[in-house]
């Protein structure tokens, strides 16, 4: 009887995994024969606009971003067309491996955009309910009033796992922490919330570690496998992947100090969803283009993604579902939507100007704030009240 019972459990788990695999296959019912079903037909960009804008962008890029020490990729698009792009520096200084258009780079918190989109696409297919408690999907999660939406918009009140693992006796920091470990600590260590859920915005990587774990639980796949099905394969983002095995750390693009000394890795480098997604500017542009498609994300879901949720404090800065935004006062300019990233030497920026159908993408693997100067470039391309920085 004991063996029969064990076999029945195994069969149940297998059937459950099969059912989840069938469900996730329905996320892209239009995806057949390798075609991208989410192509958007933009208006063509005039040659005059291309020439004039490329000159503006190139001048800004050479004066304020690639001033001699930049290492990474840079791209600006209009209506899905590349207006200007450039690549500089090395993915591995020791081996003199140059960064090219096909070099995947660790985009740090820009990866949260992909994590959020994967959750929103599953929500569109009724596989996730954004307003259900997290413990609907992660059994044993102890904070009963925290919802999936609270994770997405950073209103959960959860503390950062990089902080609570420093509490004596909480975690052996000689051991790499994983997503499952973060969840287990939250379930078993009586870790206190920093704020009551949905009372204020507090940016926290723990939220996106849990979101990636929810995707895994709902789909029955690893986050890497799920992301391929939900986003990467349909959009042909062939140079994008989730880094989920720290044993392979020497095989990916490295990050560096300003003096070209390689950044260290430590116990926090094993989690994903909050970071550890590698991609290229060209692949990120493919995602940006898909965000204009109502087949890729429904209009309703995009409205939820691109609106702010935190208005407790006065100010223009806000956060949607996986995107930051600056909402100027009426008449002071258009809404600026973006996400920056910073992890080790990787400093990155993704700007999506939906009204202007412009994307600005800058990934940098050499520890400097050059990538963040995309903000002022937006002021030259649209109605945004940003002052151009002085030259380096």
UniProtKB/TrEMBL annotation:
<feature type="domain" description="Beta-lactamase-related">
    <location>
        <begin position="73"/>
        <end position="367"/>
    </location>
</feature>
<dbReference type="InterPro" id="IPR001466">
    <property type="entry name" value="Beta-lactam-related"/>
</dbReference>
<dbReference type="GO" id="GO:0016020">
    <property type="term" value="C:membrane"/>
</dbReference>
<dbReference type="InterPro" id="IPR012338">
    <property type="entry name" value="Beta-lactam/transpept-like"/>
</dbReference>
<dbReference type="InterPro" id="IPR050491">
    <property type="entry name" value="AmpC-like"/>
</dbReference>
<dbReference type="Pfam" id="PF00144">
    <property type="entry name" value="Beta-lactamase"/>
</dbReference>
<protein>
    <submittedName>
        <fullName>Class A beta-lactamase-related serine hydrolase</fullName>
    </submittedName>
</protein>
<dbReference type="GO" id="GO:0016787">
    <property type="term" value="F:hydrolase activity"/>
</dbReference>
<keyword id="KW-0378">Hydrolase</keyword>
<keyword id="KW-0472">Membrane</keyword>
């Amino acid at each position: 009887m004991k063996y029969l019972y064990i076999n029945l459990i195994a069969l149940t788990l297998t059937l459950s995994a099969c059912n989840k695999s069938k469900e996730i296959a329905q996320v892209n019912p239009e995806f057949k024969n390798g075609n991208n079903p989410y192509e958007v037909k933009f208006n063509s960009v005039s040659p005059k606009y291309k020439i004039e804008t490329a000159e503006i962008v190139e001048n800004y890029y050479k004066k304020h971003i690639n001033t001699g020490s930049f290492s990474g990729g840079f791209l600006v698009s209009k209506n899905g067309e590349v207006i200007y792009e450039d690549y500089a520096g090395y993915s591995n200084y020791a081996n003199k491996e140059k960064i090219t258009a096909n070099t995947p780079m660790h985009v740090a918190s820009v990866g949260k955009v992909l994590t959020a989109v994967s959750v929103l696409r599953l929500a569109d297919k009724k596989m996730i309910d954004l307003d259900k408690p997290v413990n609907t999907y992660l059994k044993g999660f102890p904070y009963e009033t925290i919802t999936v939406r609270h994770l997405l918009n950073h209103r959960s009140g959860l503390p950062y796992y990089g902080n609570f693992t420093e509490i004596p006796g909480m975690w052996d920091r000689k051991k790499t922490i994983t997503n499952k470990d973060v969840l287990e600590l939250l379930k078993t260590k009586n870790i206190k919330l920093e704020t009551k859920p949905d009372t204020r915005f507090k940016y926290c990587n723990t939220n996106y570690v849990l979101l990636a774990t929810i995707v895994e639980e709902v789909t029955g796949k690893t986050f890497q496998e799920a992301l391929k099905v939900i986003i990467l394969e349909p959009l042909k983002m062939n140079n994008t992947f989730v880094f989920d095995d720290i044993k392979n750390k020497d095989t990916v693009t490295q990050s560096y100090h300003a003096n070209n000394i390689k950044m260290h890795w430590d116990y926090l480098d094993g989690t994903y969803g909050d970071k550890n997604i590698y991609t290229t500017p060209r692949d990120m542009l493919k995602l940006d283009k898909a965000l204009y498609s109502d087949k890729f994300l429904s209009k309703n879901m995009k409205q939820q993604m691109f609106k702010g949720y935190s208005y407790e404090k006065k100010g223009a800065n806000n956060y949607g579902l996986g995107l930051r935004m600056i909402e100027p006062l009426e008449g002071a300019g258009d809404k600026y939507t973006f996400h920056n990233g910073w992890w080790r030497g990787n400093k990155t920026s993704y700007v999506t100007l939906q009204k202007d159908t412009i994307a600005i993408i800058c990934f940098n693997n050499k520890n400097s704030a050059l990538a963040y100067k995309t903000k002022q470039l937006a002021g030259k391309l649209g109605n945004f009240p940003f002052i151009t920085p002085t030259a380096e």
